[in-house]
Design goal:
Blueprint (H helix, E strand, L loop, with lengths): L1 E13 L2 E12 L2 E9 L5 E9 L2 H17 L3 E2 L13 H15 L3 H18 L3 H4 L2 H10 L4 H4 L7 H15 L12 H5 L2 H34 L4 H8 L3 H13 L5 H8 L4 H14 L5 H7 L7 H30 L1
Antiparallel strand pairs: 1-2, 1-5, 2-3, 3-4
Helix pairs in contact: 2-5, 3-5, 3-7, 9-10, 11-15, 12-15, 13-14, 13-15
């Protein structure tokens, strides 16, 4: 069984003693299980099964109800989770969430789309991903609250001094074309929001975040199992139904976390001629391993490859780069010692 969530809880038991228990969520072949492990008076671990079945919603409901009961009885989690009440948010974090909620409830689509078009064009000019300039949430806030000065723009969470310096002129030119009904500071938002509805929205956001994290953990374990078994990118894609580029980014992340990705590297490089791999390795040594385009141009030349052939070349270079970086790190460690 794959354990996808585990937390330890403690309760004062008197005489300076503490009772420790664990709650866990596990998944096996699509079947969810929720377990509570707590020692009895003799110290023997007793396991209660709170849920077993296929339904995510039923599993989460059983998990939450069981956890509430244990908290009422005196247990406290050692690590806080996103299952806790919205009341646990700090004042600043809570206000940011409230601003987000208000913007979702009172969208300004015309302004938002105008800002998105500006972001897309500006990102293309700078050669950056659009979200680096501003996230969708930030654009939503700007479109709804319509700041008219640099000082007001900096009050938008996520749009700090640096971004204000770089983009204030463009953004303020766009917002100046629209009339707003409320101004800055944004304290008035808290008074205009329905608290009950906000708490329900916040609760749904936290549950969605937990669900995403658990789903990703399940997918991660499947990925590691396939890689350990010598599976290919095609095998991963068939099971996880993710784009190959996204899978490669994930593989790189797992490699950095210390997981062994070499079986996948071996499987994918098996079809690449050895002389091509040697050329690429030499190119990494001369051009560096940060960017792949110079390496590809050195060994092949991008003009000769198009479409799927170009994508495939970048794929195996990314995987070879994992091996190159591992060897470089090993050499550096040996030299340092």
């Amino acid at each position: 069984m794959n354990i996808v969530f585990l937390n330890t809880l403690e309760k004062e038991a008197g005489d300076h003693r503490v009772t420790s228990a664990q709650v866990s969520i596990g998944e096996e072949q699509g079947i969810w299980n929720v377990f509570w492990n707590e020692p009895d008076s003799a110290g023997k671990i007793q396991q209660d099964q709170w849920y077993q079945g296929l339904s995510w919603d039923e599993m989460l409901s059983a998990f939450r109800q069981g956890l509430r009961d244990k908290v009422r009885s005196g247990f406290r989690p050692l690590v806080s989770t996103d299952l806790e009440s919205a009341q646990g948010l700090s004042g600043k974090a809570r206000m940011t969430q409230m601003l987000t909620y208000y913007c979702e409830e009172n969208p300004s689509e015309e302004v938002y789309e105008t800002l998105r078009a500006w972001r897309r064009e500006q990102a293309a000019r700078e050669g950056k991903a659009p979200y680096i300039l501003a996230t969708n949430r930030v654009l939503r806030m700007i479109s709804v609250f319509l700041p008219q000065s640099k000082e007001e723009l900096q009050q938008i969470p996520g749009f700090g001094e640096q971004k204000t310096t770089m983009y204030a002129a463009d953004v303020l030119n766009l917002t100046a074309e629209y009339t707003r009904s409320n101004g800055f500071p944004l304290d008035w938002v808290a008074k205009s929001v329905d608290t009950v509805k906000f708490e329900a929205w916040l609760h749904a956001q936290k549950e969605q975040k937990l669900r995403t994290e658990l789903d990703r953990e399940v997918s991660k374990r499947k990925l590691l199992e396939i890689v350990a078994g010598g599976g290919s990118l095609a095998d991963l894609q068939a099971v996880l139904t993710m784009p190959r580029r996204e899978l490669l980014l994930w593989v790189e992340d797992l490699e950095r976390e210390g997981y062994d990705m070499d079986p996948l590297v071996e499987a994918e490089l098996a079809s690449i001629p050895e002389e091509e791999q040697i050329k690429a390795w030499n190119a990494f040594e001369s051009e560096g391993d940060r960017y792949l385009k110079p390496v590809l141009q050195r060994i092949i030349g991008t003009e000769e490859l198009k479409g799927k052939d170009l994508d495939r070349a970048y794929e195996w270079l990314r995987l070879l780069r994992l091996r190159f970086r591992r060897e470089k790190d090993r050499f550096t460690s040996q030299a340092a010692s």
